[in-house]
Amino acid sequence: MHILFITSTRLGDAILSTGLLDTLLRRYPQADFTIACGPVAAGLFAHMPRRVRTIEMVKQPWDRHWLELWRQCSGTKWDLCVDLRGSVVSYFLRVGKRHVMRGGRRRGRRITHIGNLLDLDPAPLPVVWTSAAERAQAAEMLPGGPRWIALGPTANWDGKIWPAERFVAVFRALQEDDPSVRPVILYGPGEGERARAQAVLDQLPDALDTGGNLSVTQVAALLGRCTLFIGNDSGLMHLAAACGIPTLGLFGRSRASEYAPSGPWARVAMAPGPVGNAPMEGLAVAQVVTTARALLRDRWGRKR
């Protein structure tokens, strides 16, 4: 059985689709999978079971990337196609059954829309697949002893970024509660991401700087060893929630009603103001500290 799964170009949306993929893996244990996604998201699927191929869709003028996807897929008879991009490609392929999500922005949780495509209620939570080597590397980078708190101070645009000094203030408050905690600073590749993270790194000299050059699944393996993640609305936030660790997403210029982190221990702190257009500067340190403490207590209170 051959399944074609067309998912997002953006990392966060691709992460939200992994719960649906996990459902298909369990529903069709004999199937193999071809993933079509953007280059940024491709690494997410590196260790997915029964994945035979990932097709990286690089945007081209006049939507020629869709023609290229058709060209690469037209030689196969697909038993099932799941298309989260709302394209028409599957209608021009030999497909036994197709599920196509209509395009355009809709109200409500993105993860709910994804689950509705297969009539799944509740929607399946995201998952992440890492290798044994990556988990061993993470254990070397984050050895046992300290309780590691991951901070994600970057985002894909500056309006979504909480001020650096407030990340530092939150960590210091949590460190007063537990002097054994240490910070891990996570950010993506490129000089822009490094520049956004630098102010936090400068103020937390004892932090582990992950360098921005790790793969998505290497970062996931690191997150799996952390006690807590606090970060802006970003792919890293969704990745942390998919790892199942306590995750606190910070929202102001984006809508938590659509893109809140989805995980067993996921929470949000929202800046006051117009929904989806509230200045991040309005989000107070005290609010984030209170929410983080409650999340830690709910998750670890009986164990640590």
Question: What fraction strand?
Answer: 15-25%
The helix-and-strand class reads alpha/beta
CATH superfamily of the largest domain: Glycogen Phosphorylase B
Helix content bin: 25-40%
Mean pLDDT: 96
CATH class descriptor of the largest domain: Alpha Beta
Shape: globular
Task: Tell how many strands the DSSP assignment holds.
Answer: 11
State the CATH topology of the largest domain.
Answer: Rossmann fold
Q: Give the total of domains.
A: 2
Contiguous runs where pLDDT drops below 50 for at least 5 residues? none
Radius of gyration: 20 Å
Summarize the main sheet.
6 strands, parallel
Number of helices: 12
CATH architecture of the largest domain: 3-Layer(aba) Sandwich
Oligomeric state, counting identical vs distinct chains: single chain
Q: In which order are the strands of the major sheet placed?
A: 8-7-6-9-10-11
Order of helices and strands: EHHEHEHEEHHEHEHEHEHEHEH
